[in-house]
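Sample intake — Immunoglobulin superfamily DCC subclass member 4
Collected from: Latimeria chalumnae
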Amino acid sequence: CFFVLFLSFVLCKLNSLELSCGAGPVQAVLEPNQVLVLDCNLATVDQPVNVTWAKDGTLLVDQEHLYVLPNGSLYISQAPKDSGQNERTVSEGSYSCISQDSFGAVTSRTVVVRLSILSRFHLQPESHTVEENGVARFECRIDGLPSPVITWEKDQAALTSESRLITLPNGVLQIVDVQESDAGSYRCVAVNAARRRHSQDAVLTVTKGGKLERSHNGDVVIFAAPKNTTIVAGQTAVMECMASADPTPFVSWIRHDGKPISTDVIVLGRTNLMIAHTQPHHSGIYVCRANKPRTRQFVTAAAELRVLAPPTISHFPETISRTRASTARFVCKAEGEPAPNIYWMKNGQSLMSNGRVKIQVRGSLVINQIGLEDAGYYQCIAENSLGMACATAKLSVIVREGLPSAPKSVSAVALTSSVVLVSWERPEYNSKQIIGFSLHYQRALGTNNVEYQFAVNNDTTELQVKDLEPNTNYTFYVVAYSQLGASRTSNSVTVQTLEDVPGAAPQLSLSSTTPTDIRVTWLPLASELSNGKVTKYRIDYCTLKEADQISSFEVGGNETQLTLHTLLPNKGYKVRIAAATNAGYGIPSEWTQHRTPDRDNQTHVPFAPTELKVKAKVDSLIVTWQQPSNHAQISGYKLYCREAEVEGPSDEDLPDTNEDGTWNIGPIRLRKKVKQYEVTGLAPGRLYEVKVVAFNKHYDGYAAVWKGKTEKAPDIEPPEQKGPPLPPSHIQAESNGSTSIWLWWKKPAFTTVKIINYTIRCSPWGLKNASLVTYYTSSEEEILISGLKPYTKYGFAVQSNGIGIDGPFSSVVEESTLPDRPSTPPSDLKLNPINPYSVQVRWRPPTEPNGIIVEYIILYSANKTQSDDMWNLLSKEGHTFSAEVHGLESDTRYFFKMGAKTVIGTGPYSNVKDVQTLPEKQPVSFLDVHSVTGIIVGVCLGLLCILFCMCASFRNNKQREIPPGSDSHAAGNHMHYRRERVGSFTQKACSDAHELETLMSPRPEDVSMPLTEITELTEEHNLMGTSLPEDSIHMEVKV
């Protein structure tokens, strides 16, 4: 293989294309001498175990030019023409890959591989004769893969580049201001990877002005109008418009919807629009307008541009994890033109709506009552005519420990045609924790079946399911619920309801082949009407005049016709039929009237057509018949139809031709060879009468008559005539315990669709994480939501669901679950010894208190092996988070554990922790911390008091020793005193220092200084050095 790949690199052109589940090409073109390698890259799958390839939906088998490489990629090349194989059959097709791991499988998007091709021209250029300075136009059309490039040649040489020569990408050549030199032979050349083709030659003849007749007298004419164009997004679109007039008209473009033309639309040449890379927003109607200069004359031409686009996923489904028995919802939205259809796959296999799995009209996937078997990869596939897109999400199913096992011995017994008794036994494991059951059922056969469910109380192990269809198989299973979640589903059981009498009668047809008999024919009842196996039919008949003398015949359930013999000719009769099952006869049909032929007129009047059968639809009747016995005499048939009364006329004078009253439809004349006709335009669920007669040139024959009803209109109205159902009303919620809440509501008062079930959305109040929102489904107007957290507020909203359409959710209703015992013990328990006889205990509240903590319980003991009731107990109020335990023994190991208590009870205790109390200490040798601190503080206070007393004593002594005449001395030496005071700053201004200062005599040099200098010096020193209070200084001066 590697050698082949090496040769491919050398000899061929190797192209590689990656296949994933994301956006990417939907088509690949394999050109001659090219090798295409498809790589399977599904990043969603971890460590793919196996990669397989499919071609056109079937598993691919390796061939010489189509095989899987060792790395899992797919090698595609063209088979040589001399290999005897059809090269297109070998290589062309739709390819996809599937990657599988231990969790599931994922499929890629599909890519279509086509071989390059260039078809023959299906539009050739035509010759023209144009006046000089006029306009010429040539066009050719050809298809190919890849799209061919079209160029033009004149006289088998490439066209020169001139502004007058305009080549459009769609194969059009425009020549404006035609010159005599433009005359010649033109052809187009189409080239792609497959080959090169030349069109036929077209001759352009140029004449002098005035030689051609002007058919429009100079009026403005659009001779090349834009055409309706459908194109794939990304390709080039051209809207052509060429007009002529005298003088040359002015051409402009607008959009019909009034929107401005996109800025990426350019003018090609003089009057054409070109969009190089079309997108959906370019779609619309474009109007070309040609105005004749200096006049109000104009003409317009319009064309629609439709841009197709392959699907793209606009809303991707999210990977989710759900607990067992909950609801998984994947939302997927896609865009494209035309609008894509959305379908789902699980692990590479298509999913169908049935029972628990529901694919909604808008593309969402809902899975109810999920189990382990639902885990896997889910893919949203969007597909339209241009290709497909896909997105992948993963569903993981979580199973908690301690859940109950599945209910046992589930059995179902049909009690009547519409009631089944379902019973079961409680699970074998964790049965005491069960808080309720749910019973689920659906039709066992068919597709798009709806699953219904009932919530059942814990003390119930049987339930009668009512309002079922007769003679129908149903499948039942049961799920048990505890506070932790749901069990596995039980084994499913299937039971068939009993038969009932038929819900309707067959619709019969009457005809006569002789004057003394009536042939009665009918069609078997549909299974939904028979309510069981039809075992026999009863045909009642009597004359119109003797309605109380009814004769009857019974035939077997396999019969579809009966002939009544020995009747009177030219006599009016009425006939009806009833069907029976083992449960008895159902209601009979309406009376159908018929007149036997006249014995004297048999040779001339055609007999009635035989085997008249009518298949009723909602708004039409399909009538079939066979030729009468004397069919050689007939020319054709006449068919009549009318809405019939419940009881026809009982008059003896029942006409024997088509003149019996007024017929709304007919006569419809049909040829002799016609044996079937459909009467349309009828109302649903109405009683109609159909009559078919054969006729010849002279007479209308005897009638074959049918009487019956059209089918009832389906319950679902057309989408355009209905809206989504309204949400339920009067929604109420009530707590049913610490882990469950009852929810009930009323059906909306007004609705245009039939509501089949309800979806309940549940989430903790104020939740912003959408992945924690859960959904439940209920076919009743109530549900028990279980598996909730205790003492938690929840918000509920209910949605009404019709068949194929869902309504909006209602407003949110709040309700809280009741409190419960704490699920966890107090956290972060810490123990610290205080002294030989006490321990300090600290903790934090439980992580799951399940209510308001009213009390904390501390258990402690020196013996760990004792039972809890032997431990010492200390309780603290719920708002405290520390405590001191006294009365312990010194130097002893103690064990502690804690529990929390709500109004419901005590939760689990924490893990045991131990602490060692301190040993006893000698009082002489050691002082505790508090004693040492007190001593130090007392000593310091004593020393401060002594120092204060000494200062006060010195101050008093100084004041007593001052002589009486010291006032003048002090005043005369005031400035000197202040200078000396500043000099003694470092002595902290105590009273003893002050006394020494005043007793000292001033120095001589200080006396000789001027007063102003002394003052300045003193002030300077005071500003720089002193910190004494100003009032203290003044007091000293006055002394």
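Post-analysis note: The first strand starts at residue 13 and ends at 19.
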